């Protein structure tokens, strides 16, 4: 199990605290310091069963500078979104928890983190 976090994020701290309380075995990836590649983002999106625009923080100043809210949200533009997330990792929704069964969740709630734990995350 791996969790992508920004240590300054309260949701990330809550997720790691819950994983610790549950005795989960996991690794931490500080994705702002160690940004995911486009290939890694594609793999995580597949595990999440989401599209890149679903995990994009469009209210961030950087997203506004890029004009992301106006970008088309369709398959033909998927790579453009992924490349933007790879180049600007601060736009990635957090935390992302990858479960041992090959799935992943955006762990913004305790329930979502517990869902990952229930998928073989201990």
TrEMBL record:
NADP found in the keyword field: no
PROSITE patterns: ARSC
The entry's keywords: Oxidoreductase
A Pfam family recorded for this sequence: ArsC
InterPro entries attached to this UniProt entry: Arsenate_reductase, Arsenate_reductase-like, Thioredoxin-like_sf
Gene3D superfamilies with a match to the protein in the record: Glutaredoxin
UniProt entry tagged with the keyword NAD: no
Family: Belongs to the ArsC family.
PANTHER family attached to this UniProt entry: ARSENATE REDUCTASE
Protein name (record): Arsenate reductase family protein
Organism this protein belongs to: Streptantibioticus parmotrematis
Upper classification of the organism: Bacteria, Bacillati, Actinomycetota, Actinomycetes, Kitasatosporales
